[in-house]
């Protein structure tokens, strides 16, 4: 058989069992040439795939930090009023290639690291031929081949996910499916080609080869349903800006979402707040795919201080505050009570309401159960970084089916009402008017996925940035240049000799 080896940051991983601890998250593995040169077995291939999830995490200030900052371009969050806060450039829709360089450099490198690792695994992992002299031997051989296919499908899922983020953030990007190709020197490829030649084919293969229950048994690795959730999101985005493929692709998004609803056996977690509890994150709940953060296993999140206010009893960093204008539109209920902190204890022993606090803003409370029982105690914390949930599937079907047909069917209405019922709102949506229903579903996505890295991408694909960011959009770089892209890192531009996105 082919041979295989792994290293982490220059150090070899000792592999003594077939059991993979998915919380260990090895950094990744070596080059495709080296990967092709050492003896292969399924446990090592699975460990290689597991390394892709740590590449996605990419440090305490990697994925969860940079994607949260990108989402500040939407309307749900505001920045701390501290001097020279460069996050304001993003909030005001005038991203700076220099002042915000850490955001572009980190996110760009983050996703390309995942793609490079996935390319190596996809190209370097042949699926064993089915063999055996007896029925039992053939059955065992088939099971082994399925495991190999499933692991390669994980790599395809991760490659598609990374390309999906890149095209939405940066537009035209390199088409690279061979890890021996230097990304830095490839030409930019049109967004449509990236979708049609890499993202969609990878996800169709992932949907076919991933098991219905993920390798880990919960959301730290993708299942078939996670792949379908991502595929439906891709179709939904292709239907809107910038490709604007319209009803055909809304229909595709609805079809895939309905397949999940009808055949997965999944359901909403009964209590919204339980989704964010440290003690429950490894349950087989509605999280379909997420980064499972762990301080002990050196894959911490940045939630420990970022969402706490500066005058909190254990002073927070106040990286992000809740937008008071958005809170004013947010429907009352258990979900709202869980998602926001409107008063808190201070270091002086008093309790302060947000209006009277040092910075004068309310806080997002969704990510506050992760600090080993001591709120705001440490910069690094545990937790879960959500990427896809079953709620996503329900609301996507509701939105896509209506936009595809101009009609609100009973399933679409139930999907929306199920989300609202769990949220504890006083009034459920009952309209079957297509336009009114669309407004209700789009609003519900914002409420349900508060601070989950989705709002900016939703505003962009539906071309609603001007509507929901009316304070900043008229004088923004994005309006002036007729696009919603961020700047490609200047180092990459210089290396490849590209022209950056307009305005940067």
From TrEMBL:
InterPro entries per the UniProt record, alphabetical: SusD-like_N, SusD_RagB_dom, TPR-like_helical_dom_sf
UniProt keyword terms in alphabetical order: Cell outer membrane, Membrane, Signal
Transmembrane segment boundaries: none
Pfam families according to UniProt: SusD-like_3, SusD_RagB
GO cellular component, one term: cell outer membrane
Keyword Translocase: no
PROSITE patterns with a match to the protein in the record: PROKAR_LIPOPROTEIN
Location of the SusD-like N-terminal domain: 140-236
Domain of life of the organism encoding this protein: Bacteria
RagB/SusD domain: residues covered: 335-493
Compartments it resides in: Cell outer membrane
Similarity annotation: Belongs to the SusD family.
Name of the molecule in the record: RagB/SusD domain-containing protein
Organism whose genome encodes this protein: Bacteroides cellulosilyticus CL02T12C19
């Amino acid at each position: 058989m082919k041979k295989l080896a792994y290293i982490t940051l220059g150090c070899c991983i000792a592999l003594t069992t077939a059991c993979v601890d998915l919380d260990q998250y090895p950094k990744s593995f070596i080059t495709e040439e080296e990967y092709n040169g050492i003896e292969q077995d399924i446990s090592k291939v699975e460990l290689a795939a597991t390394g892709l999830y740590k590449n996605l995490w990419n440090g305490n200030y990697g994925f969860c930090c940079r994607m949260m900052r990108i989402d500040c371009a939407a309307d749900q969050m505001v920045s701390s009023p501290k001097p020279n806060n460069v996050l304001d450039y993003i909030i005001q829709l005038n991203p700076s290639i220099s002042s915000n360089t850490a955001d572009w450099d980190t996110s760009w490198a983050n996703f390309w690291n995942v793609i490079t690792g996935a390319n190596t695994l996809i190209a370097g992992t042949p699926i064993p031929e089915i063999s055996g002299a007896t029925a039992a031997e053939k059955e065992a051989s088939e099971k082994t081949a399925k495991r190999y296919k499933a692991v390669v499908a994980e790599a395809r899922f991760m490659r598609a996910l990374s390309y999906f983020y890149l095209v939405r953030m940066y537009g035209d990007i390199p088409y690279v499916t061979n890890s021996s190709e230097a990304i830095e020197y490839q030409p930019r490829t049109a967004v449509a080609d990236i979708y049609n030649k890499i993202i969609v084919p990878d996800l169709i293969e992932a949907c076919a080869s991933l098991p219905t229950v993920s390798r880990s048994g919960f959301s730290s690795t993708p299942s078939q349903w996670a792949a379908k959730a991502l595929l439906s999101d891709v179709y939904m985005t292709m239907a809107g800006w910038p490709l604007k493929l319209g009803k055909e692709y809304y229909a595709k998004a609805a079809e895939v979402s309905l397949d999940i609803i009808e055949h997965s056996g999944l359901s909403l977690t009964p209590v919204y707040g339980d989704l964010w509890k440290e003690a429950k994150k490894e349950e087989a709940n509605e999280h379909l795919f997420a980064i499972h953060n762990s301080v002990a296993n050196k894959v911490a999140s940045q939630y420990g201080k970022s969402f706490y206010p500066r005058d909190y009893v254990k002073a927070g960093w106040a990286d992000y505050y809740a937008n008071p204008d958005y809170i004013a539109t947010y429907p009352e209920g258990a979900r709202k009570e869980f998602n926001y902190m409107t008063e808190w204890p201070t270091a002086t022993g008093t309790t302060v309401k947000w209006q009277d606090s040092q910075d004068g803003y309310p806080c997002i409370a969704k990510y506050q159960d992760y600090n080993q029982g001591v709120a705001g105690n440490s910069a690094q914390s545990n937790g879960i970084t959500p990427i896809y949930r079953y709620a996503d599937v329900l609301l996507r079907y509701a939105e896509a089916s209506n936009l595809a047909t101009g009609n609100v069917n009973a399933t679409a209405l139930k999907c929306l009402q199920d989300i609202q019922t769990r949220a504890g709102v006083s009034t459920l949506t009952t309209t079957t008017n297509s336009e009114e229903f669309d407004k209700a579903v789009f609003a519900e996505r914002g409420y349900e996925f508060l601070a989950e890295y989705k709002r900016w991408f939703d505003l962009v694909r539906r071309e609603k940035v001007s509507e929901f960011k009316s304070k900043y959009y008229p004088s923004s770089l994005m309006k002036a240049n007729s696009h919603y892209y961020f700047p490609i890192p200047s180092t990459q531009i210089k290396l490849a000799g590209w022209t950056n996105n307009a305005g940067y």
